[in-house]
Specification:
Blueprint lengths: L10 E3 L2 E4 L8 E5 L2 H5 L7 E6 L15 H18 E11 L1 E4 L2 E4 H11 L3 E9 L14 E8 L43 E2 L3 H5 L24 H11 L5 E4 L6 H8 L3 E6 L2 H16 L25 H5 L7
Parallel strand pairs: 2-3, 3-12, 4-5, 4-11, 8-10, 11-12
Antiparallel strand pairs: 1-2, 5-9, 6-7, 8-9
Helix pairs in contact: 5-6, 6-7
Length: 327
């Protein structure tokens, strides 16, 4: 398949080189290409963190809907390339939702697991990312979570837990019996954020991660219909890579993963076949390097209307409706 080339000169910001074609001396690579073709350019064992949210085969503008079997076969070809380029100490994070056919749900993480397992990777966490807003269903319960599968290539992998710890709900909790009775029971650096990442501020305080999905009023929103929140990627970048490591997103979209990597001193590689998204992505990266890109800070509370807010008031018509839960 031929791809329309995007004519952009390589750019240098300070000491950082941003290239529109793969070159090993670039700090940021963003190429418009097929993801398998691009991946074949990368050296063996060269990438510390691969993180992406692949197309779900649900008919979005950037994908062609095929059978679930054909979809997984295509993904398997890519996954073999990704395993090849992944460092022995590296991690692969694969964030997916559900494929829906005739109202039947096919949980993609379940289908992907044996593919990664057959490729020799080891699952470390199945992270549940919960968000409060999305499409409303009428023939099943509305979906409000997706999963992120974290795999490693070996048992000797990078995991910087201290870089992503969160405040404890009960920092002054103490042991109540045994030889540590009366001593503080928590970790002074903070607690492990767990494998359930939620968007609600009150749950963040109790140990869950505050990561809203990117909707119309989100500060990071672009034209991409399924945009990765930078905040979600940042936690993976901090925990699973070190400075100057390479972070690669094989479905870069509008470059949320690359933004997260560059923000924290990593090298960033990305590829996408949609020339419009690549143009938006390159613009976002330019704004980041110029210091003008807005991203949502890690842990910022999600807006929640007060009881007196007009948004929180129950409409009079609903109160009169027979069978309403608001009566």
């Amino acid at each position: 398949m031929e791809f329309i080339s995007i004519i952009m000169s390589n750019l240098i910001y300070g000491n950082l080189l941003m290239a529109n074609k793969f070159t090993s001396d670039a700090d940021i690579v963003l190429e418009c290409n097929d993801t398998v073709n691009f991946s074949k350019k990368l050296p063996n064992d060269s990438v510390q963190l691969i993180i992406t949210s692949p197309p779900y085969n649900i008919g979005k503008s950037y994908e062609t809907r095929v059978s679930i079997i054909d979809y997984l076969d295509t993904q398997s070809e890519l996954i073999n390339e990704l395993v090849r380029v992944l460092s022995p100490k590296g991690s692969l994070c694969w964030q997916v939702g559900n494929y829906i056919e005739k109202s039947e749900v096919f949980p993609l993480d379940i289908y992907f697991y044996p593919i990664f397992k057959d490729a020799g990777l080891k699952l470390r966490n199945r992270i549940v990312w919960h968000f409060g807003h999305g499409l409303h269903a009428s023939k099943r319960f509305s979906g409000r979570y997706e999963t992120l599968l974290w795999f490693t290539k070996t048992d000797d992998y990078i995991f910087n837990l201290d870089d992503v710890r969160i405040p404890s709900k009960y920092p002054n909790k103490r042991h109540f019996k045994g030889n540590k009775k009366g001593e503080l029971s928590g970790n002074p650096l903070g607690k492990n954020p767990s494998d359930f990442w939620d968007q609600l501020h009150e749950d963040f305080d109790s140990g869950l991660w505050n990561i809203p999905n990117v909707k119309s009023n989100h500060v990071e929103k672009t034209d991409h219909p399924c945009q990765f929140p930078v905040e979600l990627v940042e936690r993976c970048v901090l925990a699973l890579s070190n400075k100057d490591d390479i972070v690669f997103d094989p479905y870069a979209g509008v470059a949320s993963s690359l933004v997260a990597a560059v923000k924290h001193g990593r090298k960033a590689y990305g590829v996408d076949r949609d020339k419009n998204y690549v143009s938006i992505a390159r613009e976002r990266l330019q704004h980041l390097l110029e210091g003008t890109l807005e991203t949502r800070p890690i842990g910022k509370p999600v807006y929640k209307p007060t009881e007196s807010s007009s948004l929180a008031q129950i409409p009079f018509e609903w109160l009169q409706l027979e069978g309403s839960v608001y009566k």
